[in-house]
Amino acid sequence: MSRRLLLIDGTQLFYRSFFAIRGLSTKDGIHTNAVFGFIRGLHQLIQGWKPSHLAVAWDGGLPSARLALLPEYKAQRPPMPDDLRQQIEPVAEFLGLAGVPRIRLDHEEADDVMASMARWGSVDGAEVLIATNDKDMLQLVSDRVSMVSWGKDDPRIGRDEVFAKTGVYPDQIVEWLALTGDSADNIPGVEGLGPKTAAKLLAQFGSLAALWPRVDEIKSVRIRDSLVAARERVERNLALVKLQDTIECSPGWEGMAVKPEPPALMRPFYARMEFHTLMKGCDQGELF
Fold first, then answer.
1. Rounded to an integer, what distance in angstroms lies between the CA atom of residue 76 and that of residue 273?
2. Residue 164 located in a structural domain
3. What whole-number distance in Å separates Cα of residue 73 and Cα of residue 115?
4. Measuring CA to CA, which residue among 149, 145, 137 is closest to residue 185?
5. 127 and 48 in a common domain
6. pLDDT tens for residues 154-165?
7. Mean pLDDT of 125-154
8. Which range of residues forms the domain containing residue 38?
9. Exposed (0-12), middle (13-18) or buried (19+): which is 183, by Cβ within 10 Å?
10. What is the DSSP letter of 124?
């Protein structure tokens, strides 16, 4: 039996739901917008991609190795809003009731957890789908690993789509990001070097290892000087943006098997959250 493993960036879906749905709360004033959006988003992903197995990864803090390389790593991000923080526990409760593994490791980012799970699943012969919008995850795309986005009709992102989006294939994404930097993670790139120029340089030289000895072949004096000045930064960026894929975090195939939500467990939870449409779907067996 072929397996299709869906890995979901839970932190991203949680934040996305919070900002997409505003003003939803119980009659007692308990905020539920992120919880509702998270559950609805999870259902849509399952309905759309029909995985046989499923896991949700969560950020557990910043790895010390990345902070040692760049103390400002992700430092620009604001703290989690209190209205969102209050909804972490009910989302965790929902996942527990639904039997969906929630993988969170202290001082490990969700991206590295998903990278490790993707490697584990693909090596074991599964088709792996990763639900996220993070561009650093493009480095994981292969013949067995694809990215999917949150939109209902968004296409699956494979090798060709990565190239169409960035100008490089997945095996060059790490070097491409090392050159361009990543503002979302507060990682500065080469000054004045944009994504298209970075892609052209990698197409011309094949790799950064081949570029440095031949940097004088670059016709633009401005680009050449910027690269030479930023070489140490680029080498540091390589270590920052490369995802770690050897974390032991798999709950095993049996633990990740997709199964119907148990109505007897879900109904009281949905009632407490005042999710009337989800209660109706639970009663009618229409969630998955």
1. 33
2. no
3. 19
4. 137
5. yes
6. 789 999 999 999
7. 91
8. 4-159+244-284
9. exposed
10. T
